[in-house]
Each structure stands twice: as C-alpha cells, then as structure tokens.
Records
---
Amino acid sequence: MRVLAVVPARGGSAGVPLKNLALVGGVPLVTRAVRACVRAELVDQVVVSTDHAQIAETAREAGALVVERPEELSGATASSESAVLHALDALGEDPEVVVLVQCTSAFIDPDDLSAAVRKVLDGEADSVVSGLPTHEFLWTATGGGVNHDPGVRPRRQDRDPEFRENGAFYVMRTAGLREHGHRFFGAIAVQPVPPQHAIEVDNPEDLELVRALAPFVDKPEPIDVDAVITDFDGVHTDDRAYVDSDGREMVLVSRSDGMGVSLLRRSGVKVLIMSTEHNPVVAARARKLGVPVLQGLADKRTVLRDWLRIEGLDPARVAYVGNDVNDLGPMGEVGWPVATPDAHPRVRAAARVVLTTAGGSGAVRELCDRVVAARPAVPVVEVKERPQLGPVAIGDLLVGDGEPVYVIGEIGINHNGDLDIARRLIDVAADAGCQAVKFQKRTPAICVPEEQKGQIRQTPWGEMTYLEYKERTEFGRDEYRQIAKYCDERGVHWFASPWDVPSIEFLEDMDVLTHKVASASVADHELLRALAATGKPIILSTGMSTLSEIDAAVEILGVDKLIMMHATSTYPLPPEEANLRTITTLKERYGVPVGYSGHERGLQISLAAVTLGAVCVERHITLDRTMWGSDHAASLEPSGLEHLVRDIRIIEQAMGDGVKRVFPGEEAPKARLRRVTV
C-alpha cells in the first residue's frame, strides 16, 4: 500500500451537532469524504477514525475501513494529526504517503486529491495542502495591511495569487509526519481547488450554503431507485393552466416525458403521480402515461408513507420530484428528493438533485433517463422456438388456433346469490351462442381480509357485516348441482375461478371440466400447485401481472393443458390500457393458446382481440347494468352479448386462411373490368 487516506470524523461538534452525519445533497458529509477518496485514482485505501457508532456504520457502508478512536483523542482539543498517527498505529503499516481528508469540505474533487498525491510521490513536495487561489487584500482590525501596502494598490493582473488554506485535504510523506508530528514539514506545496469546492462547514450557515450549492456543484450521476413519485403541476407541466371559454382547463406537457415513463416501467421501476388538487386533467395524463395517480391529497407526506409501506419499498431507494413547498414533506420521506430548476428556493435547497430541464419541457424525461442509467442492463435472452401447444380440449370442444373462438359468459358474482338470476344468466349465454359460463367460488372465511370481516355494509338484504354479505351471496353444493344440471340442459359448459384451496376441492367434487385462475391469484403459488395437481385444463388470466410473475405461474402449471387470457384489471377498461398486442407477446413467449378477458364498455376491443388471434373471449354478463353489485356496470347486457358472439363468428369467417386467390365472386367482374396490356 503506497497511499492511505485517513478521514477523522468524531461524534462531537461545537458548531453543528453530529456535523459529520449532516446531509448535503442527500448524502452524509462523512460519506462524501469517503467517496472522494475511493474515487481518487492514487488512493489505495480509506480509513475513517471515529468514536461514534453511527458514523462508523455509515463509513463502512461507503467503503471505508473503520478505526475506533480512543476517548483521549476524541475531544475538541485533540489534533487531526493525533487521529492520523493513531490510525497508522492501529493498521500496523506505514504507507509511503498518508492523506488527511476533512469531512467539513463537502466538495472534494478526486482528481484534485490525486494531483496532490502525485506531487509527493514524484518528489515535488513533502507536504501538500489544498488551497483556494485568491487576490484578496487582507487587513488587521486596526487598519493595517497584512498582505499589501495600503498606499500601493496594484491591479489584480499584476499580482501573483496567494492561496487560502481551505482545510479539505493534506498530503504528507508518512515518515515526515512521524518525525515532525504535524502536517507541515520539508518542501510544502499547494494544490489549487476551485472556489465552489473551497467552502468549509463550521457552522449552520455554512451547512445551509453547501446544501444550496450541492445540486449545482455535484456532477450528475445515475439515480439508483426502485420507484419514482412525482408531483403534477410544475413537474409534468410548466405550472400554468389554459382555460377556454367553457371553463375547461388545459395544460402543457412534454411528449418526451411519456417515453421516459415507458422506459422506467419497462425497467421495473414503479411510478406514481401525487397531486394536491383533484383535476380531470391530472387523471387524463396519468391514463395516457399508464401510471397510477393519487389526487386531492391534503397531506402528501402521510399518503406517501402509507403507499411505500403497502408497496414494500425502501424509502431510501425512492425518488420524489417536486417544485413547491407542499412537496417538502414527501421529499423528506425519501432517499432521493428531486426538484425542478425553477422550484421554490426551499425546495431546491432540500433537494439531492436539481434537474436542468423545467417542468412541461422534459423534466420527467431527464429524471427517467438518469434512473434508467442506474438499472442493470436487461440481458439478451436467446428465444428458443416452442412448439405451438394446443389446441386444448375442454370437454367436447377444442380451444386453440384454427378452432372456433370459445366464448365465455362470465356470470361471476352477478347472480347476487339468487339461483333464479343465475339460471336467467345461463339462458342469456346459451341464447347468445356462448360455449361456457363461468362463476367465482370462494370460502369467505379465508378470502375476506380480517380487517374487512366486521365492516358494516348496506345491502339489498339489509345492513350486515361484509363477511355475512359474502356468505349470503356464495352458492353451496345444492345450488351448484342445480347449475350443473341446468347448464347441461342448455348445452353450455360451466366452471369457476376458485380463490382458495378448499374451493378447488369443492369444484373438483362437482367434476368441473376446467379451472380458471383469476388475475388476482397469479402469484398465489399454493393455489396454483393445488390446481396443477387436478390434471385439468387451466385457463390463466394475466391481469395486473408482470412477465416474471407469469413465468413463475407457468413453471407451476406447465403448458400441456394451459390456456392464457390476456387481461387488464381496470374496471371499466379504458381503450388506452387494453394493450391487445400482448396477445401476440404471450403466444410467442409461452407457446400456448391465448385468449382475451375484457372489462371494457362496448364490443370493439373484444372484437379486435379476435382479429389478433384470441382463441377465446370472456366477458362479464348481466341482466341489467344498473343492478346492485360491483361487477354489473362493466358487464354486457343480453343484447350486447348476442351482438358480440354474432360479430365474432363473422370475423372468424372473414379472417380466411391467408392464401391469396381469386374468389368465385370476383370472376365475373374480372372478365368484365380487367384490362390487360403488353
């Protein structure tokens, strides 16, 4: 080891309590000092000498060795040299050069540090001190000139610079330090540092100053986070609103922000918009970006804290972007507080990063690019061709490419616990030409969260707890025997989505033809293992699921008897969230038949899914969308279902086989109209 850097960092401080742990740009001062040493090309090892446990832990996390400083060397009168000599003794090894680095300098350039070390290694000096070049005139309190003759005022350009010691670092030959006991000996040189790096933190005012400078002095670096939360006004917009004659509000946003958010989501980073106001403009932009939004927030900090807990995120690995004082609360909750360049001065001072691009002009894109830069590169995986498995047999029907689309009328819980309504809905599905109806099967005592069981609900049957309501609307063996008999009479299949293992056992006893995995159950591996054990065909819905979550589900279920359903679990589904090309993605990735489970209003999206190759289509059905219950509003009424099945069959005929030919109906026009020339 030729060069050792020693950072004295005791716990006591007269000017600023626990100064060495004070955050500047979101980073403790001791961490900033250690990082500068680690990044210096000529420094071989970094040691922090401290008497404080938290400083020691922080130093280790930054990459330094820690030497515990004894009490007699930790007081206010102890010299920095004593800490360096003690660290050398503790290591039991004398390097050629030792560097004393002070945490009180927040902005140490690793290149300046290495340049100073080189002067000693090359023999230009025995001791080097960092200093700020200055042409200042100094005076005594009694009016005497210290570095000038008051009667002679030479011009700046006629004077050689002097250097003000700034206390950032001192480079010494170790043998000379041991011989003399202090940092200045032999040939002494100065390593110039720029003014923005020369501020030393001795009091609260200095700390406030370096915090304000940090966003501008620190070099941009990748932002390594797992989630990005943004304010809306002033971040996605330029903080102005345009109001037309009808009072409708419009805002200016940057198209580049949309691509940035898309890149974030592809890299696995969670994105959230938070807004104090409740504004349809915010909701519309969030839908366009495909990210969740929380609006009308009186206390952003509390809401953010709850959201982080629910999502299981480490606040230290989260960025929040704000521009005004109501963002100070949430900015204080995360490890990466970020401000726009035109933000309120207090917001800029609190920020670890100040963006260079204003809101509405690409601020969000700038942040997204820096976050994506910190993410590991997505490995290029060789895609092996999978045999196109399927079709899959469900009862007497085949479901797969080249087979008629398998249309499922999702009754779900729209029967409201009434067997007569269930029969009428089976009639609706059979009359429309569906091949199957589907229900949902739960064990309420298992599926209803504990905190919701006792909640009081107003229902068509009067006031009751939520658990009582779920039990009231759940069919038992007698009802399902009658359902099975009636479906057989009407010539349609029936099955259900089991939400718990006992429900699988229940449905197995009813001898269903297949099982459906609801989107909410994709990550319920206990449930999936129980379903795989049945050996029955499985229909897997993929709403609100990542590819990695689907991969894990497929690993359990296998692909031999698997049908996937592309779905987006938004009720009702806006067109921009349908993402129908995912049908092709799922087919290519897993090599299984893929259908579509829709929650949109209207028929267009479901019909488009068929043109993209959906082998089955599932839609919620109801007798009347105004009926009481959570799923009726996003369901098809009888006439809508009839039109859907009719149009699917027309599309099937129209799709053809892809072979270009002249059809019989074209022969007569061809003979009459075709002109041939040579």
---
Amino acid sequence: MSYKKIDLLVNGKEQVVELNKVAKQANSAVLFREGDTVILSTLVYNKDELIEEDFTPLVVQYIEKAYAMGKIPAGFVKREAKPGDFETLTSRLIDRSIRPLFPKGYAYNTVVDTIVFSANEESDLQTAAMNATSLCLYLSDLPIDKVVYGVRLTKIDDKIVVNPTLSELKSGAFDMYVSGTQDELLMIEFKAQGQEEIQILEVPEIDITEPMMAEEPVTIYHTNELSEDDFIECLLKAQEAIKSATTVYKEAFEPLKKEPIELKLRDLKEDKELENYIRDHYFEEIQEAISHLAKSERASILHDIAKKITNELDKDYDFVYNAVNSIKKDLVRSSILDKGIRADGRGLTDIRNITIDTNILPSAHGSCLFTRGQTQALAVATLGGEMDAQMYSNLTDKADKLDKFILHYNFPPFSVGEADRVGPPSRRELGHGNLAKRAIECLIDPEFEDTVRVVSEVLESNGSSSMATVCGGSLALTAAKVPLRKLAAGVAMGLVTEDERYAILTDIMGLEDHDGDMDFKVTGTYDGITALQMDIKLGGVKINVLKEALEQAKEGRCYILELMEKAKEEIVYNDKVLPHTINFKVLPDKIVDIIGQGGKVIKDIISKFGVNIDLDRKTGNVKVTGGNKEVVENAKTHIISIVNVPGREIPKVEVGSVVKGKVKRVANFGAFVEISDGVEGLLHISKLSDKRVNRVEDIVNVGDEVEVKILDQKGFKIGLGLVKVIK
C-alpha cells in the first residue's frame, strides 16, 4: 500500500492518520495526530511459531518520550528508564480493551507498541493512545473486523462533557473512561472527584433601625459520588460517542484494511465424545470438586480426576483435563442459571461471611484485617508530613506534583497457595491499587493536609481482593484518625448468560470470575458510586442488564457499609503511636528566624525534639508533627520563644547630619561604621571617594576614626558617605 493521509473529524476533534509513512517493516503502523499530540502505534506478530500455552500471547506497551513535551528525563541517567505508573496503567487499559477482539485459540506471539512523540499540557494521552492502537490493529492483516474507540467524560456545571481537555477534566465532578466497538461496551473505568465550592451565604444582622443581611463566603466540599441512574445516563452518552466515532473510522479505513491472513489457531484439544464419557462416569466427582472453594485445592482435585481418567482410558492428558474443566464450567453456570444456586451454596445476591478486626497491629498508626469468605486483606495506614509525599510528574505536567494519598496493593503468591517468590509489583497489582485509591481519595476531608500511605497486604484470595482493600483501607484510615467524610465499601459483581437468560451475581469468588462472562467491581458510599471498573468477556452487555447489576451492587454495598459502621464504632485507637500535629501562626517575617542561617535553627529543633516542621512563608503558618503530644507541645513552646524574642528598636538618626564614628568591619563592598552605641551604618565603597576605589583598605581600615554623613535610612539599614578620615 502506498502512503495515505486521512483527515477526520471525530466527536468534534480533528484527527490526522498517516499510513505507510514510518515503521514500514512492522506488520502494521499508524502515525496518529490529534492537535499537538502525535502517537505512533505499531503491531508485530511472529507467524512462524504457535504458542502452546492456553492464553492469548499479546503484549501491549505504552511508552512516553520526554522530548514529546520538551523535557529531558530526570535522574542520573538521562534517558527513559522503566515505565512509570501512568504508562503501566495505560498499557493495561489498552490491553483490556483490545484483548477480547482476538479469536479464541489465537497463538501468535504479538507485540503492540504505542509511543508518544509529541504532546501538550491539555493532551488526553490515554484516549489518543487507545484510538491509535485500535486503528493499528484494525488495519493489520489479522482477522479483526471491529474498531475500538476510547472516550472520556466528565461533568462540569451539571453538563456532561465528552472528551474534555485535561484542565476541564481536573475541574469536573468525575472521570469516566469507556471503550467499546460500534455495538458493544468492552471496558469502563470511573472515579468520583471531590470538589470545593465557595458559596455566599446571607447571614442576618440584628439592627434596631433597619434589618440587613450580611454576606459570608463559605467553602463547601462535595464528594461527588454518582448515583446509579446518573451513571447510566453518562454511559449512554459514552455509547453514543463511541458509535459515532467507530462509524467514522469504519467508513474511512475499511477500504484500506489489508487482506486478512488465514490464522492457524491453537489446537483447543477438545473431544466431545470424551467429554460425554466423562460426564456419564465422573459427573459426581467433578461436582464434589467444585464444592472445594480454595482455588489451589479445587485445581488439585480436578487434576487428580484428569490423571485417573487418563490412566484408565490411555488418552492425552490435555484433552482429558480440558474436558473435565469444560464439564466443571457447565456445572457452575447451569446451577446458577437453572437453580439460582452458586458453587458454595449461596443465592445470587448473598454475600459471604464478613469479619472485621481493627487496629490489630499495636505499633502501626491504623490497621484493619478485613475478611470476606476466603478473601482477606490486611490494610495498614501510616501518617507522615509533607516530606513523605510521593513526588511525581506525568508527561503533560509542567512541574513536579506531590501526591499526599498513597495506596499500595500487594498480592503475594502464598495468598492463592502458589509456591513462588514475592517479586516487584505486577501490572495487576498496580491496577488494583489504583482502583482502591480512586475509591477512597474523594472521601478524605480536604482540610486534612498530612501525607498518608495505605498498604494492603492480600493474605488470602478467592475473588475480589481489590474490594476487600477498599473496605479495609477505609477503616484503616479511620483507625489512624484520618478524617473521612464517609466510609467506602466495594463489591465485585459477576454475570452469567445463555441466549436471553442471564443471572447477576453479588460478591463473586474466583471460580465465578473465571467461568463467568463479566468482571464488574463497584465501590462507593450510601449515596453513590466513587469508583468502578468493568471488563466484558463476551460480546458486550446490554444497558438494562448493566443498570440491574448496578442496583444489585448498591444493595450489597450498603449491607457491607452497615457492618463497617459497626466496626468503626468499636475502634480502639493506638494513641501511644499516633503522631500528634499542632498548627499555629506567627508573623510571616518571623519564619526566617525559625529557619535560621542555612537552616541551622530549624535543623536543631527537629533534632532536639524529634519532630517534623512545615512552614508557610506567605501565611506564617507553622505545622509541627511528632510522635506524641508532649514533644510537639515542647517544640511549639521553643519555636514561640524564638519568634517572641524582644526586637531592637529602630535607631533614630538625622538624615543629612555629619557624625563621627569608628570602623568596625571591612568587606570587599564597603566598611561598617559604628556611629553610636550599637548602631552601625554602611559606608559603601562607592561613597569613599569621588574617584574609583579598587580596595576599601586603600581608604579606611578597621579601627580608623572617621567623619561620615548620614545619607539615608531604611529601618535598621543606614547609608553613610565619607567626609574625612580622622588621623
């Protein structure tokens, strides 16, 4: 194909797509431009080798280049290093949107690289990267005939805004990202964004002669949870934008699509006759295996059954195990659809047994062990000062930023019974931690200025450990006395469908996640949704089903919140280890006295009392944080003693008068002359003579008596001019 340049107008935004211009040795390459954003997306697959493992061998890499914003990478080594959190999360977001498009049994090792070459501070790089990748995939010679479009929405002044700029998004009430094809939704990411609003309240003033109303500004904080009905309204708006965009893409690029190759798919190793035999002879054993809830135990039993059948029939083990697994899946799904009974005996809306233990770690600031069925998360909150905040800078940021709310999620292999070493955080761990953070962040009181870190240690997992993190994290923060406007709870939902029949499941376990058709996590308060993540495994989901799932999730969430509220009332605080903070004000010009020359004074205070001190030069606010109340109070008393030292009175001198004095000190710029007890003036080198003076010592030296004229006075600063040196 020769070079092609296509100009598009997509949902009000101009886009330019260039084909066969760069990276021509890749199987597919798209140079995508939207305003100042320029992104290259490439796709390469190895058609000479089939991957035998049972998964889609797809790797998606989203890569940012510092030069795209006229920056040089920070750090000692001045080149791009390992991907940052934003790059990792964006890679994951794209992966989850395009992976469902690959046919079952696809086994070619495939790599998608999406690289940002140019951007500006208003660029929404996630949506641009998603759409560039989608076109690259669609225009390849893989048999994929659907275009994916990513759209972002927010609400400003009660109006839904489609594809806002980053500054608009920042001022919006929420951040909703949706990807889908022309007829199907594939993925949803949502977070509420807390906002401060200044309202003018009229306050009545008592006046005998004439009653008046005074106006008083009041700051009101909105946590901005979204109701289920409003969520569906936004989703319909997103669906409309996706349909419009994919229609434009289809019309423009369908004639340019390469002839699809004939794929050789992985042998799925299915044998229907074998499956029927096993169903007739081993049905009860497989059914018994399903009742074992732990993933590791259930898998072990199913493997044992498959080995026994393999030995009995002298069949290929993989065929036998796949047949056993297929029967297990059918059993799980049919029981749900036909009887409304799940593998563990629960009804569709039942939530597993929940226990909550708060502050079980005596030396931690706040902790909560949240257990739901066989899922258990230990959430631990730690308070710190401004120096403990996480510094970060995304590509589109002009300057570094401080993140004062940090949430880390750890998923060690032992939590699912796997014998493996604990390694660095995976994409999944970063994604789950990000979801939990989004669920809680908007609920923290904006007046709380301390840095706080929550770590969730998943100790046992059988479904929805990220939701356990939200529940445990909310209570750990509360146990550390972090002011939350409301508690947040989370629940994972599932969906099982067959033709027109469907069943929505509340609080799914790992088995239902694996064998179901939808993974749907909802977090929020009694008042609405704070965060949501949805991945569709089948060909989309109808809006009416999604609405029903949201309402069912709300019921489950409220039930969990009731248990959390009871646990909150029973918290025994770790007052002995909780840091104590005092805020007080001094005159802004006294801040320099607290700091001292070269920071000597403040370093001495920190060392002596073992406290952290944050100073605001503009307002004069002093914030002292320490291990307990006593040391903080002592540090405050010491600081006040520094700033309340009686100051010298400004000396009174008569400008223009001539006085006698003595040279006390000499510097390269002039001499300091004592003109009365304790009062000095500066005799600048330029005031020593009418002619140029190279060295002060050529005219005056320490100890010389001089006659000087007082030229000016600015507070304590007195300017002098030399009249004569007294010999």
---
Amino acid sequence: MTESHETGSSPHHLTLRQTRLEDYPDIGEIMERVYPDLDGAWSQDQFTSQVTRFPEGQICIEDNGKVVAAAISLIVEYRRFGDQHSYWQITGNGFLTTHDPDGDTLYGVDIFVHPDYRGLRLGRRLYDARKELCEKLNLRAIVAGGRIPGYAKVAGEMTPQQYVEKVKNHEITDPILTFQLANDFHVRKIITDYLPADDKSGAYATLIEWLNIYYEEKEKLIGGSRSDVRVGVVQWQMRPTATLDELFLQMEYFVDAVSGYRADAVLFPEFFNGPLMGQFNQEYPAEAVRRLAEFTEAIRKEMVRLALAYNINIIAGTMPEYTDEVLRNVSYLCRRDGTWDRQYKIHVTPDEVSFWGLQGGNEVNVFDTDFGKVGILICYDVEFPELPRLMAEKGLQILFVPFWTDTKTAYLRVRRCAQARAIENECYVVISGSVGNLPKVENMDMQYSQAAVFTPSDFAFPHDAVAAEATPNTEMTLIVDLDLDNLKELRNHGSVRNMRDRRRDLYEVVWKGRA
C-alpha cells in the first residue's frame, strides 16, 4: 500500500510492507529514541530471529525508503501461557522462540513510531494491518501486554485498576492505553511484574485483547458456515380455492420459482391457507377456522416434502392448529434436510379472540438452520420488543415475520415495528403478507401487504435500511441476498452497538415462562 501525503513543503511517500533484515539500522534507531529507559533497541540477533521465524508478523511503514514505524508479532497457543505471563517469557526473551505456527492467538510484541512521525496516525495503520493478518490467518484474537506509562504520576493516589477505569472513562489520558482502547481493544485484566524494568508503569501492564469475529475453529470443505444467505419472500394472492390440491399447486409454484434462484429460504404469509375457509359456514367464524385447522397437518407434510424436493428451507406462513380444544396460530419451519419445528403466535389480537377464540402460545424459540440462527414471530408479536430482544440474546440473525393485515394502518404498525426490531437487535427482519380479497370469508375479506426485508442502519447496509420491498398489493416474490458477516461487523465495530451498549446494571429482559 503506497500513499502520498503532504506535510508543509515536504512530501511523504508511505509504504506498508513486511520488515526485512536490512531494515535493522532504521528500526534500531527508532527503538533507541523511543525506549531510552528500557535498554533501547533489540540486538541484531534478536531482530534476525524475529524476521526469520515469523516474517509475516513483522510489519513496517517506510517513508522514501526509510523505516519510520514498525510492529512485531508472533503466534502462540495462548493456553500454554495463560493470563499471568511475563513479557520475556511469552516472547522467548525477544527471539520469538515461542512462535507456534499452529497456535490460535496473534500476540503483539511491540509497536513503535519514530518521534518525528507522530501525528500521522501510523500506529493506527499498524494496528489495522495486524487485525487484517489475524483475520487472514484465521486466528482467534490479538492479545498483548500493554504498558501504562502514565500510571507512575498517580501511583500514590490510586490502584492500577482504578487508573485503568479512569482511562476507560476518559477521565485520564494514558499515552498507550488510550490509543489501544480507541483501536477496539478491551482490557481483560491487570498483569503484575509483566516488564520489571518498566518503572513508568510500576511493572504493571494491561492484558488487552481484540477478538477476530470471523474466526472459524475448523474450516469445512463442504457444509461449513457461510456469510451469504439468499432469501425468497412470497407476497401471496388470496383467491377462491375449493380444494387442498389447488392450494398445493399454488404452494409448489412459488417454492419452485424461488428455489430456481438457489435461495436458502422462502417465507409465506400468515394464514395463506385462508381461502379454504370459504367452503365452511361463514355465519360461525369460530367453527369455520376450526374446520380449516383440519387441513393443517396435511399442509405441513406437503411443505416438508417441498423443502426436500426443492432443496430449500420453508417458513410455512401460519395456519390454525386445534388440539385438545385449544385453538392456536402456528408457523412451521420446514428444513431442507427433512426436519421441522414450530413456533406459536404468542400475542393474539382482540379481533382474533372475539371472532375465533384464538389463544397464544407460551414459548419463543431461536432455530438452527444450515445458513444461520433464525426466529419466527407472527404478525402482532413483532410489535412487542421484548420477544426479539430475548431471541437476539440467543444469537438471532434473521427474523421471519409472516403477517396478515387488512388495512394500511394495520400494515404500517407491523412494518414500523419490524424496522425497529432490525435496528435495535442488529439483525435482518423479513416480512410477508397477502394481497387481494376473499368476499365469502368472514374476518379475512380484505388484505393489504407490502412484503419487505429490513436491515440494521449503518454503513454496511442500504442507506434507508431496506434491502428490498415489494410493490404494494401485487402478487409477486422478492429474492434478496443478505450478508451475515455484516451483522458481526456491526455488533463489534458499528457506529453504535445497541446490543453491546445496553445498561445491564440498570435493566434486563427476562423470560419467565408459564407458571
């Protein structure tokens, strides 16, 4: 990486590269300037061993051919050393004899910048290069023992722990720790006797860590975890349907169409099987919906068959379930491996109670799939923020919301709440409803829908936090690609981090379950 930068009348030509053996004079000069009270520069033998044992981990920045900043690193199997190690122990007395190519952690030995080049943020470039190296080598984390040279001035007034807290709270500035915290490192603990000669730090050090959110313990050649997910959404046209076979034909049409785009999942809307209710007595809606529930088992089996046949995971909208004289609204997750799970609607609307006698379920789940962790909330449920927050605590990545609304005002309640859930829980939210009219079906005669896929709101996502949306009140499908790595990046390095920044010392959301 080469960059031109003007400072006054003197141009800089900066290049980030690996350190070479012939760089020793420049690096020795910098260390003598930076560490006059810590024995100055490495010996020629130490430097040669560092570059030879782990060349990829030795990084420098040169300006017009002269090295002006450098970083030194090694790889260790961290559990061999544990948290209470010393600097000379873990670095092999500076020779990096402890370097283990099969280790799991990139250990930061040193970063230094020529005093004449401070102010150009070269240290930040070196930290970013280390992070990139950690990710490319698939290492768990970067760990280092950080000096706290500002501590000596206040050692008689506070403990090292109190000092570190004040630095974290921006009440005190430390020349090293403040910079490390600004580069996304966090303090795990205080180490004693880390570098005995470091009088400015009182021989204390902060054990700092940066976690690699892309770390994979073992890469699978087939069937491994993925970051890209393709989702299909069906905006379903309600039309008179006399038989179950007619419904199956319409279901298979959409599964076939969406799977043709190699989608990983497809979402159907709430009560998409409602047209079958037209064959029952509409003077008694409660009886008609219970008769509709007689088809539910057959529809679920057909959805499982379609998931297998078309190699796609299906969130099968919702349908009524009537068991032991209890009527519930249920959604099925039908996986392409032949397994399936269910999620009941938790909150029922006043209308569903008065017309049908619907009751709510008692569990909320996060399901594992071959593309990530998903959840299902049915229509009204997404208007209660506690449920998605509990799901997010369990690792939710994509929330599917099948809904049914009859008016635009009802639809906007679902939409606005779904968008809020995506932002506050740092996940994707997929919503799907039905369109058209059913003149002979009581309580389901009108439909309003605009299916959509919502994202969090940050730089890695669309500017309006909408990945895609359908044309209102038109039968159609959406095919949308989602990047799960963007969620990891957001949760760890986003402009704001809703999940991480919660005040757990003040409040929490707790699932009580049913007494």
---
Amino acid sequence: MGYQAPIRDMKFLFDDVLKLDRFSNLEGFADAPKDVRDQILEEGAKFCENVLAPLNSVGDKQGCKLNPDNTVTVPDGFTEAYHALVEAGWPLLSADPNYGGQGLPHVVNMAYSEMTSSANMAFGMYPGLTHGCYSAIHEGGTDEQKDLYLPKLASGEWAGTMNLTEPHCGTDLGLLRTKAVPQADGTYKISGQKIWISGGEHSMTDNHIHLVLARIEGAPAGVKGISLFIVPKFIVHKDGSLGERNTVTCVGLEEKMGIHGNATCVMQYEEATGYLIGEPNKGLSIMFVMMNEARLGVGLQGMAVGESAYQAALSFAKDRRQGRSLTGPKEPDQPADNILVHPDVRRMLMDIKAHTEGGRAFLYWTALYGDLLHKSPDEAVRQKAGDYMSLLTPVLKAYLTDKGHKNASDALQVHGGSGFTEHYQASQFLRDSKIAMIYEGTNGVQALDLVGRKLAANGGRAIQTFFAEIDAFVAEHEGDADLAPFIAGLASARAQLQDATMWLMANGMSNFDNAGASSHDYLHVFGLTGLAYMWALMAKAAYAKAGTEPFYDTKIKTGRYFVDRILPEIAGHLAKVKTGAAPVMALSAEEF
C-alpha cells in the first residue's frame, strides 16, 4: 500500500481543534469554509497519492543528471508531474490574488504542502522554494519587480531559488565573497559561486529567478554589508517576455545522502545581470522572510516524512509474521502472529504516531497565527501572532526534524533486516529525513537562535505570553476529570520549561557557554511542552465527540500514550540543561 494522505486528521484539526470557521470574517478565511477546505484536502490527496507518491522511489533511484551543456535532467516523470501541478493551480492556493493567487489561508496551504512532502519530499522542494522566492520579492520588491516576477512565480510557471551558501561559508554569512558591481543603468554585475542550491537548474520551467546574496563593492564588512539581488536565468523584459540567457550556470551537482530527486546545484555567476531588492546592505532582512518560511517548511518536512515512514512501517507490521504474542497466540490458525502483537514494535509505532500527530497540530496551530499576523484587525492579536512566529520557528524546525529523523529510524527498525535493503522504502525515508536537521540552519543553530535571540526579544514578551496562554487553559480545565491526565502533564511541562528558562536567565548571560551547552536540551523541553499543549487541545476536542466515531477514541488513546510515555522525557532534558557548560567544555583540544 502506498502513501495515503491523513485527511481525516487534517479535518479534525481544521474543524474541531483550530475551528477555522470562527475566522470567516477575515480576508481569505471567508473563501475557505468547510466544504472548500474538504474539497482541497480530498483533491490534493488524490494528486499526491496518485501522481507524486509513485515517483518518490523513482527519484531516489535515478537522481538528477548534469549534462555536458550544463543543463540538468530530472528523474523520469518529474517534468510531467510538475506541469500537472501548475495546470491544476496548486501553487496558487495561498498566493496574493493581486498576482493570480487564490488568497486562501496559509494554514490550509500547509496541509497541502504536508501531503506533497510526505508523498515526495524531493519533488515538493521545487514548488516550495519557488514560493519562498515569491514571498521574499512580495515582501521587499518594488511594485515593478512584483508585477514582473510574482505572477509566474506564484503559479509555478517559473522556478525560484535562494543562494546563500558559498564553498567557504555556510551559516556565517558575513564571510561571503560574491560581489556586486553597480552599472550605469542601475543593474549590477554579480560574480561568485554558490553551493547547495536546491532546484538551481532544471528544464521543468521556462525560467529561474535566483535570489542571490552578494556584497556591493565598498560595502561594510560582515553581515552589515550584504545585499539581495534578483538574478534571472533569462532576462525578463518589461513586457514579461524572456530575453537573452544570463551568465549564471550550473557547474556541478552534489552527490547526496538523500533527496536525490532534487537538483542540488553548484551555481557560478560570471558578471551576471542582477537587480537590487530593497536597500543596499539590507539584504538579509528580506532574505530572512524566505529563510523563516523555509524553516517552517523544513519542520513540516520532518513531520511529513515521519508520517510516510509510519505508514510504511505499519503496513509491514500488519503483514509480517514472526513469533507469537507474549500472552498467547492471537491468530492460532496461522503459523505465526503478525509483529504488531509485540509490545516493542508497538512502542516504536506509537512513538512515531504520537510525535507525528502532535507535531502536525503544533505546525497548523502556528500557521494559523501566521495568518492572523497578516489578517487580524486586532493589533494585540497581530502582536501576539508575530511574537509566536518568531519564538516558535526555531522550535518547530529543530524539534520536529530531530523527531522526524528518529521516527524514520524507528520505522526502519520495525522493518527489521528488510528495512536495511532497498526493496522497501524505509531506508529512503531515513536518508531523506536527515537533511531536514541540517539545511536552513542546523538544529544546533536553531537552538542558539532560540536561547540567544528569541527568548530575550522584547523583554521576554513572547514566552511570557505563551506561559500565560497555557496557565489560562490549565485553570479553565483543571476540574475536568476526563482531561485530568492531560492538564497535569501540561502543567508539569510548563513548570519545567519555566524552570529551564529561569536557569538560562541566571546562568546564560554570565557565561555564554552555559547557554550554548544547554540550548539543545532547552529546545527539546520547549518542543515537548508545545506538544503537551497540542495534545491537551486535541483531547478536549476529541472528548467532546467521544463515542460518535472511532477516530476520536483513538485520538484520546494516542494522547494518553504521549502523556504517559513521551512527556516524561522532559525531566531528563531539564536535568541536562542545568549541568551547564562544565562537562561539555571540560576536555582540552588535545584530549579529544
């Protein structure tokens, strides 16, 4: 059995947990009532299950090919699938109607994006990065630039990329050397090499719009001197027609552990014509629009690949017969029981299920705040939404990709020796999931961003708001007998997150190594607390309809598993937070 989109769970989140219909007075939400949302989920599922999922293994096995003329050939079927994607209008779901989009809420689009990533992560990166490019130009471009580039980027007719990393610098962008030389006509000549550029070259679209970080001659050193440029593969004339080929070339393809179906390119710029976005030396602020969107998208990838791996492992477990149940044969007429009877197999499957469903809720809940940030008329709501988007982005990116990779590993373990072969897709899910822990800022960098920047921003307003929201929920439901385990678990997690936060405030500033050494475990305390809140919200919604459908009873049981078996891990992370830097930094360089 191939990938099956979890649309029942998505509808539960939209209708019962987030209750999206209560926002029908807001722009975009008015165009997305339940019947429209359901249709999007159902049709999106058909496309992802029937078109994209069958190409996932094809892309993994074939990979991409760099040709002698510096063009790139994508795996069989990818081009046809991409054209079908564009023709169906899927990239336009949440794009601005001023540029041809449907203007629907981003939270609805996130559900479709999840299906794409689950069905075929490597393929989903092509339209995903294009949407990020669209968002950056939408945020920082001139009206002329928006009119020229956004309609074709929004539709997916043109591809978009972001070019940050260079052979000698990754996260430390202050070291970049790509240069931009001003020209008399207001353009710039861009020269330099960028590496690890996802979707940097292919023939699925007529044009590529590269967003390139570069330093204008004479600019300040470090990150204060970085500007952002639009560098098209083919120059776009004012009437929208394509002109001459720009001097930007794919000179290599990376050989990667996973996501083989995505062309990860080495891009060479030789005095290529570029167009400044925004002000000189202010490029990072615009690029971060794309990067932050990408980070949420990567968190989504981690959760989505875990979903695919879970489905494959569950299917295997139901078919594979090995041994007997410890409490006696469950199918005595068969030579052996299926391995789903074994507690340890169930442990792994339940771990994946609880993390994935909790992670989905956390992502959609946060995406809703992203919509409110732009569409709510209430200034206080917009402030809270902006605070949450800033605070939670590193948590979602790092925690969900850490767990997504762990989920893929557990799913392979369920397969036993079969998972270590290429006959099953288990190894592909594991290989594909690893990159999500690395790109768009490694998870260690996300943890440093959380403790070093996001916690202290605006005097700690964001996390205090988060604490206050949890406190209000606990106070409202502390007398509910059904919810008692969920409320107790959430209250305990919240207290431990506050404990960890106070420890960092007291010890992190006096010795920055304390913050650095504790950041990973602090982020996991935060991630577990976030999932505890999500499971409490889901349990409340499920209990309200318990007994009406098996789905709700299953949801409650899965939530209890999270509270009883996963949430206790928070205490171990808190203990490690409080050890500080001493044990981490104890060895000299020579002692390693």
